[in-house]
Specification:
Blueprint lengths: L12 H16 L3 H17 L3 H8 L8 H18 L4 H13 L20 H13 L7 H18 L2 H18 L2 H18 L2 H18 L2 H15 L4 H17 L3 H12 L7 H10 L3 H11 L13 H15 L5 H8 L19 H11 L3 H18 L2 H15 L4 H17 L2 H15 L7 H11 L4 H8 L3 H15 L4 H12 L1
Length: 516
Amino acid sequence: MLAVVGEPSAADPAARFELLQQARRQYDEGALSEAWESVSAVADLSRRAEDPATLADAATLIRPSHNLALMARVQELCAEALARLGDADPVRSARLRAQLVATSNPFGPDRVELSGDPDVDDPEASFLRLRARHAERLNPTHIGERMVLADAAIDLGRRAGVDEYVCWGRRWRMDAYAELGNRLDLTAELAALTPIVERLNKPAWRAHLLLVKASARLLEGRFAEAAALNDTALAVGGPDSEAGFWHLIFRATLARMTGEDADEVEKHVRRAVDDMPYLARGWLAVQLRSAGKREETAWEWKALVPHLKRMPERATEWLIATVGNAEVCVWLGDVDSAPVLYDQLLPCAGLQAIGVAYGPYEGPVALSLGRLAVLLGWEEEGRRHLHAALRSCEDQRALPHLALTHAELATAYGFGSRAGQEHAETAARLARRLGMHPLTTELSAQLTASRHSGPTLTRRELEIAALVAEGLSNAAIGQRLTLSERTVENHVSHILHKLGRTSRAAVASWYTTRVH
């Protein structure tokens, strides 16, 4: 709620200034909704007073980075302020144009690009241009350029004496180090950022530090500590802050890893994606996959498949979303979509699936590439990717994904083989120690099945298993055997149940190991 008593006069510059200061205080405290309400009030007074300068200051006050609805409102205000300002104020115009780019919705129909503004002697305009250039380079292939921008922000902050610019630069550095899997330098950056945040004493930045620590605990499999830090970040930052946005995302990842609170989290994810861009339904598909809800997962996946190439590469979540799509694709055995995802991820083979240093870690990209390659029947390539993922997890002490990679190698080698059994047993020991109950249950079923003489498949099921091992889709199998696709789906479901497997890749591995 606004703290200003009574109806402020549009003709009173002091009233506009006081509202602007109020908005800045609210923004610093992490109360984004209240800050925007104050900004809107300033904008209204500025219009009535024909004061485009104050309107411009209001439009560039908030720096949203996760709330797409707020970003859209800020961008509209920037466009209006630019039109009213004209050529009268080059400094404010430069700020507004940079803010337009920084708040551009990567999922929106219109893309705004940074204009070639002449250099202006204004630290705020310079920083906003750095933010805009950074927003244009969020794809993992631009890590090097983002590091240069981070260095520039830190240098600008030191020269201008503005701690916030330094904070943003160190934040961008940490994000890059997280994607590179460079925990040594990430930890050093966190240590350097901490005293600056303590000096600033702003809730949003204090919550940011807590989330970076939560991400590190999650990566190591210290799930209870990660959950506690995530909750504390929410309490510090508030529900309107970035911590409020990330809170459910952390909870969802923890639920997939541990199986705890999974049903409740799934309900929240269902509600959340309704207010997100359409492609966010891939997040729901990942949650459904972790719950073993094959039919519902398939429904979501079929609706997403036509749009796999439309995930905007400048979105923060591009890599996370693509890795999640790969997991669902492999679990459902979609050999038609697998090459698309493999090609998308291959340029990022040496990177980690983490959009930002304060978000949940989703493992090495090599793990997803290995899964896709095994599904496609590229055994040698799949094992090469998975062994690379194994080394990456060991280097970072990413224990949960070390367990997941060993489990995938068990599938790649076949649970009936000696190598496959060794990888499965290693994965099971790690999963039990960390409390990864879903993976423990899955591996237990697979190991039990492999130790028996083998399940009995009907002649038709063996025939279909052989074609699955060849990499054929259900539609292609149906054409080969003159069966409906629905009938083939039923047979594949029965095969998975009998074998105690959860993916077509596992069926292919079983058939190759046991039949030939």
